[in-house]
Specification:
Elements (H helix, E strand, L loop, with lengths): L2 E6 L4 E11 L6 H16 L4 H15 L19 E7 L4 E7 L5 H8 L6 E3 H10 L10 H16 L14 H4 L16 E6 L5 E7 L20 E4 L2 E7 L1 H7 L1 H10 L4 H10 L7 E6 L3 E6 L3 E9 L1
Parallel strand pairs: 4-5
Antiparallel strand pairs: 1-11, 2-6, 2-12, 3-4, 3-7, 6-7, 8-9, 9-10, 10-11
Helix pairs in contact: 1-2, 2-3, 8-9
Length: 312
């Protein structure tokens, strides 16, 4: 079952924004998406850029604590490690990515700072060192929601049910794959990602994503969120933010695939639904998509999201 929102008329949107809390995020969290979306919309109304708007929206979602990003990021299988990814991109060619960054409060702000460097992406220790150099202080605080989520995963591991509802881990022996320095899980699902898309008064489009990764995960695992064309894409024709099981999204380059559909003249709702339909029903996936003519949200699971537009 695909849920969607569509508003599609030529020359309809003057400016606007949309946010999501990730595939499988509870609709009870829609208030968090709405707060982030409203903040982005106010910035756009004041004449700020689409890039400024999506970065601010994702920062708010990172600070919420209920979403798998920033303070709410999932703990990796060892119950201690947190590695986060974030990306920003706009139709003016600005692009910044951080991968497996640790000990920062807002990865999306560091990704935004990468835009001002000669590079496109920084990872792991280099990303964290860059954050310190740019004045982002050390931060490690795990939300209560994230801790409760990890307890549920521990229970699944103990009961041998880790792959029951998570196709990524079906038929996998966690013990044989363990790559942390700490003792294995024997003494001890989530795939949501936050995202925002926006169109500003000047006609520029932008996208930002942030995630604590999938749960459970091995050390160093990277999903779709920081991979251009997979979890995010923004170009002259539109902005796309994907969410779901990253390994599957990467294989199909979901964000760029839907963008290409739009570039061939497909309306935004149909392109978004066709993108979601590429995946098997047991693969959780969702998408926000925005053009100057329309905006759509599509998913095959529940997905908290919010939309705010100013029409011509």
């Amino acid at each position: 079952m695909v849920s969607h929102e569509n508003r599609y008329n030529k020359e309809m949107i003057r400016y606007g924004a949309a946010t999501h809390g990730g595939a499988m995020s509870s609709e009870e969290f829609t208030d968090g998406c709405s707060a982030a979306c409203e903040s982005a919309f106010r910035l756009l109304g004041a004449g700020r850029s689409a890039l400024d708007a999506v970065v601010e929206a994702v920062r708010i979602l990172e600070d919420d604590g209920r979403f798998n990003a920033g303070s709410g990021s999932v703990l990796r299988l060892d119950g201690t490690t947190i590695e986060m990814d974030a990306a920003v991109m706009d139709s003016r060619g600005r692009l910044g990515v951080v991968i497996s960054i640790r000990d920062v409060k807002n990865p999306v702000l560091v990704a935004r700072a990468v835009v001002g460097t000669p590079h496109v992406a920084l990872s792991a220790q280099g990303a964290t060192a860059f954050a310190r150099k740019r004045g982002f202080p050390p931060f490690r605080q795990v939300s209560e929601h994230a801790l409760e989520r990890h307890k549920r995963i521990e229970q699944l591991v103990r009961e041998g049910k880790l792959g029951k509802d998570n196709p990524m881990w079906q038929n996998c022996d966690v013990e044989s794959l363990w790559n942390f320095d700490t003792p294995s899980y024997r003494d001890i699902f989530s795939c949501d990602t936050v995202g925002a898309i926006a169109l500003d008064k000047e006609g520029s489009l932008a996208v930002a994503t942030s995630t604590g990764g999938a749960s459970p995960m091995l050390l160093g695992r990277v999903g779709d969120s920081p991979m251009i064309g997979c979890g995010f894409y923004a170009g002259p024709l539109g902005a796309m933010a994907a969410t779901g099981i990253g390994e599957e999204i990467i294989k199909k380059m979901l964000a760029k695939t839907v963008y290409d559909m739009v570039s061939r003249g497909e309306d935004i709702r149909l392109a978004s639904e066709n993108g979601i339909s590429m995946f098997a029903q047991d693969v959780a996936v969702g998408l926000l998509a925005l053009t100057r003519e329309g905006i759509a949200a599509a998913s095959n699971r529940q997905m908290a999201y919010a939309v705010r537009i100013m029409e011509d």
